[in-house]
Specification:
Blueprint: E1 3-7, H1 11-22, E2 28-32, H2 38-47, H3 50-53, E3 58-62, E4 73-76, H4 92-109, E5 114-117, H5 122-133, E6 140-142, H6 145-160, E7 167-168, E8 171-172, E9 180-181, E10 187-188, E11 191-192, H7 199-210, H8 212-220, H9 227-241, E12 246-255, E13 261-272, E14 275-279, H10 286-307
Parallel strand pairs: 1-2, 1-4, 2-3, 4-5, 5-6
Antiparallel strand pairs: 7-10, 8-9, 10-11, 12-13, 13-14
Helix pairs in contact: 1-2, 1-9, 4-5, 5-10, 6-7, 6-9
């Protein structure tokens, strides 16, 4: 890609920008934020690391959404973060207004860009971005599944002591307490985790995966996670920029898959140069199907608020 713009130069936005630059996934990264000097300072700080990390990516900062022009990908991280004790849904009203303002400017200045939503609640905001933009569903998607699956894989590696390079994990559903960690599709070098872990250990990993973001927030007190989210966003864009046709769990607009329509949920998707090119529909056993439906119901609860 030539240009990627990140709207929201907070910690997630800055971490994403640094990852994109280090891996030279595009020629230019633009950081935009309403706080004067903040995106410019972040861009300059990252740029000055280029001799050390050996990258030629150009970084710029701006306080004007007109600088979206020419963007092939717009990453939306802007909005208010949740505080300890808050759910992701608690920030919906504020972040929805922010999202609408950004999408409107994308339509004016970068109408051919893809939209990658990171701001919470991501399932609902991805749906809102899709509806507001009128873009085809392959060009609007959200980051959650990659992050949740990475957290689960990390916990499996920590619990077993095996290399995380051998762990493959899969998490479906909404990005919240009702997410569905798919233990049946989680393996260590192709071997199901049940071969190495007891039910009690697996249940502990599932619980910790669901509470992964809240755990970090409770420890930091003043900041949510940003390193792992930044890495997750980068992996999604890398798959698109290099047309890898990489299978990644992500928030996608569902059109009949899993028996659902008119909703955005975390599902495994194929990512390539056309964006979210395909939703992969896994055969769910009854328990998984029940949990997935419960997760969809939780997302729809917030969608009702959106449609009022």
């Amino acid at each position: 890609m030539k240009k990627i713009t990140i709207v929201g130069a907070g910690r997630v936005g800055e971490s994403t920008a640094h990852n994109l630059a280090k891996h030279e996934i595009c020629r230019e990264v633009m950081l935009i934020d309403i706080k004067e000097g903040m995106p410019q300072g972040a861009a300059l700080d990252i740029q000055e690391s280029s001799p050390i990390y050996d990258f030629d990516t150009k970084l710029s900062g701006s306080n004007d959404l007109k600088d979206l022009v020419g963007s092939e990908m717009v990453v939306i991280t802007a909005g208010v973060p949740r505080k300890p004790g808050m759910s992701r849904s608690d920030v919906l009203e504020t972040n929805l207004a922010v999202l609408y303002g950004i999408v409107d400017e994308v339509l004016k200045h970068a109408p051919k860009a893809m939209l990658l939503v990171v701001s919470n609640p991501v399932d609902v905001l991805t749906y809102a971005a899709w509806k507001r933009s009128g873009f085809k569903r392959s060009h609007v998607f959200g980051m959650a599944g990659v992050l949740d699956s990475a957290r689960m894989a990390s916990f499996v590696a920590l619990e077993t002591g095996f290399s995380v390079k051998d762990v493959n994990a899969m998490v479906l559903g909404g990005h919240g307490d009702s997410m569905v960690p798919m233990t049946r599709f989680t393996t260590i070098n192709g071997i199901p985790i049940e071969h190495f872990l007891s039910k009690e250990q697996i249940d502990k990993i599932v619980k910790r995966t669901r509470e992964g973001g809240a755990e970090i927030l409770s420890l930091r007190k003043t900041a949510s996670a940003y390193d792992a989210p930044g890495a997750a966003v980068t992996s999604m864009i890398d798959a698109i920029s290099h047309n890898r046709r990489h299978i990644l769990p992500a928030v996608a607009v569902l059109d009949g898959e899993y028996g659902l329509n008119d909703i955005c949920m975390g599902v495994p998707c194929v990512f390539g140069e056309q964006g979210m090119e395909k939703v992969i529909e896994l055969p769910l056993i009854p328990q998984e199907a029940t949990e997935f439906k419960r997760s969809a119901d939780a997302v729809r609860t917030d969608l009702v608020k959106l449609k009022k």
